[in-house]
DNA sequence: CGGCATCCAGCCGGATACTG
DNA sequence: CAGTATCCGGCTGGATGCCG
C-alpha cells in the first residue's frame, strides 16, 4: 500500500518524487477531486462516483491518502456500518493544483493527441 | 511506450487521466524540470543530470514526451552522433505547474512523512 | 554517442469471493 | 455497508549487452 521507501538515491532528498509517486497512483487524484466536490462522502458513494474503480483498489487508495494526512476517515458505530471520508485541510490545499492540472490537460489535450498520432504515423512510415 | 489507449470508460472522456498517466511515469516530470533549466540538453547530459535513470528508461521517457509534443528532439548529422532535447512551447507551459507541485511537496512533505509514521504506528498497535 | 533488444523482477491494479 | 483475502495478468522500469 504505502510503497516501501523507494530505495535510496535522489529520491530521499527530493520530496517531489514522493508526491509524484502518489500521483502515479491511478486513482488518487481523481478521488481527491471527487472528495473536494462533496464535503463528506461515504465509501459506497465513492464507488458509485468512480464507477471503474474496484472496492479493493478504492480502499487502498483511500488508505494511502489517509496515511498521508490528505484525507480523514470517520466511522459511525452503527449497523450497517457507515464510514465517511473527507479532505483534510492539507488535502484541500492540494485541490487547486489538481484543478490547474486538469485545466492544463483540457487546454492541451487535443494538441497532444494530434501530435501523438502524427508521431506514431511517422514512426510507422 | 505509448500506453495503449487504456480501455474504455471515463478515461476516454476525461483528458486528465491521460495527463496524469504521463505523470505517473516515474521520471517524466523530473525530465521536464531538468529540461526547463537547461534550454538544450544532450542525451548523455541528461543521463548525468539524472543519475538514477537507465539509458533505456530515459530513452523511453523522452520518446513519450516527444510523442506528446512536450519535448523536441534535434539530431546533428555528425560523428559521433549528437542529439539535443529541449522543451517545446507547450512543454514550457507545463513547467509552472510542475514547479507549483514541487513547492507544494516541499511545503507539506514533513507533515506528510510524520503523518505517515503515525499512521503506520497505529496500524501496528 | 545515442540508443534499441532482451531479459526479468516487482508492483499495481482488476476480478472475484468472503466477512463483521 | 465497508471493507479484507486471494489470485493473477500486465505494465514499468532496472540491468545488461549490442549496434550504427
TrEMBL record, chains A, B:
SUPFAM superfamilies: Winged helix' DNA-binding domain. PROSITE patterns: HTH_HXLR. Transmembrane segments: none annotated. Keywords: DNA-binding, Transcription, Transcription regulation. Residues 14-113 form the HTH hxlR-type domain. PANTHER family: TRANSCRIPTIONAL REGULATOR, MARR FAMILY, TRANSCRIPTIONAL REGULATORY PROTEIN. This is Helix-turn-helix transcriptional regulator. It comes from Parabacteroides faecalis. The lineage of its organism: Bacteria, Pseudomonadati, Bacteroidota, Bacteroidia, Bacteroidales.
